[in-house]
């Protein structure tokens, strides 16, 4: 079994708000992250697929194909977007790093060709990342 990871970077803005909470509760729970004007991050995304090396090609997955899948499913939807308003999934779900990683998993699952999606790692900052391995 071989693991192959492709990295991508994107920028997006978001804010944390739970419509089930009062404005005061949202402010207490999320603090400055509840600012409706949002704040931005430069995310780093690592997508790891696993599989056996194809003896015909010598690859688990063609990296240019994996790059195109990430471009189509993630970058076009999330890069330079205000996630709360421009990504339908985050109209109902708070776009935390954890939930963004889950959404990316769902967007990529079943689309990585011969390589099986193994992990989505999303860095929000240099010292904070979330690993998501599916459910």
Give the number of helices: 4
Tell me the β content. Answer: 25-35%
Could you state the oligomeric state of the chains shown? Answer: single chain
- The share of residues in helices is 25-40%
Question: Layout of helices and strands, plus pairs?
Answer:
Layout: E1 2-14, H1 23-30, E2 39-51, H2 63-78, E3 81-82, H3 83-86, H4 97-108, E4 116-125, E5 128-132
Parallel strand pairs: 1-3
Antiparallel strand pairs: 1-2, 2-4, 4-5
Give structural attributes:
135 residues, Tetrahydropterin Synthase, Chain A, alpha+beta, 4 helices, 5-stranded mixed β-sheet
Question: Summed up, what is this model?
Answer:
The chain has four helices and five strands; from the N terminus they run βαβαβααββ. By secondary structure, it is α+β, with helices and mostly antiparallel strands.
Explain how this protein is built.
- The chain starts with a strand and ends with a strand.
- It is of the alpha+beta class and 135 residues long.
- The chain is built from four helices and five strands, in the order βαβαβααββ.
- The protein has a five-stranded mixed sheet.
- It has one domain: Tetrahydropterin Synthase, Chain A (2-Layer Sandwich).
């Amino acid at each position: 079994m071989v693991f192959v990871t492709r990295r991508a970077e994107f920028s997006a803005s978001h804010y944390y708000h739970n419509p089930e909470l009062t404005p005061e509760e949202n402010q207490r729970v999320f603090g400055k992250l509840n600012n409706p004007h949002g704040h931005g991050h430069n995310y780093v995304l690592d997508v790891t697929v696993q599989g056996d090396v194809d003896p015909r090609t010598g690859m688990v997955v063609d990296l240019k194909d994996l790059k195109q899948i990430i471009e189509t499913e993630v970058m076009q939807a999330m890069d330079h977007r205000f996630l709360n308003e421009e990504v339908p999934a985050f109209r109902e779900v708070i776009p935390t790093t954890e939930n963004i990683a889950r959404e990316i998993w769902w967007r990529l699952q079943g689309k990585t060709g011969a390589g099986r999606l193994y992990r989505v790692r999303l860095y929000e900052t240099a010292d904070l990342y979330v690993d998501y391995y599916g459910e």
